[in-house]
Amino acid sequence: MSLEGSMRHYLESVGLREICLQLEGHGFNQLSDILSMDDEDLAAVIPDDESKKKFKTTLHQDGRLMKIWLDSLGLGQYYEQFQASGLTSLARCSGLSLRSLDGVNFNLPGHKKRVFREAQSLLGYGTVMAEGAWEEHEQLRGGRFGKFLCLTADIFARDPQDKRDNPNEGAAAVPHRRVKFMVDSGSDIVTLDDDIIKELQLPVKGCAKQEVPGGQIQEKPLYSACLGIGGKMLNVEVLPDNVSTLGTPVLWEFRHRIDGEKHLWLSKADEFGIKS
């Protein structure tokens, strides 16, 4: 399985001829060049969202580009092992974890780390939807417990795009509030400060039992709300608490990149029609 000819020849063969001049005008002249493009590069070169989506989807799904990518990293000798491990396309490699590479027998540990590092930004895979950070959370006793991963997001009394209740009501009229949430990957719920619940008059959905300090089970009201993160709207169930938190039901809706300074919330592959 090989690719012959220039980048122009390849893009023409997959129906992306109109993008050639834009890429070449920005110095992306080889196939290996376009695989290293990040979201900022893509936005500058291909401003049209539909064209950008088509470009990313096509390249992520073309298994022939795997060999070119590995060769560009100086690791082409692992191509057959990647194929045998099911890592057969850029979509399967983009944003992968170190554990995902366990099926490849790397000669040196540095080779594994190189693949992992480059895979996190492979062809701008995963548009940044929102950006969180390590911050002190004021609801935790003035932040005296140190810094936590936090994200500021919008909480709505209902989905602002859903106008079925009142066709004449615009999104701006839906009660909402900007809230600083603490990210809690050990929780399977979303919690919200009780004062905010009352302010937004969130509708009660039912009741839920929750274990409280001391091991006792307490019944609490369960509310419905809509959570807005970077333009993505999620219908969520909310429990009242003294700390506003985002649990795994929300985390699972995104891909994530975390370092010592920030937490990037990335779109999932299938939001661009990309099948991993």
TrEMBL record:
One of the Pfam families matching this protein, by short name: SAM_2
Domain SAM: 69-125
Any GO BP: proteolysis
Segments passing through the bilayer: none
Domain of life of the organism encoding this protein: Eukaryota
GO molecular function: aspartic-type endopeptidase activity
Name of this chain's protein: SAM domain-containing protein
Species annotation: Pocillopora damicornis (Cauliflower coral)
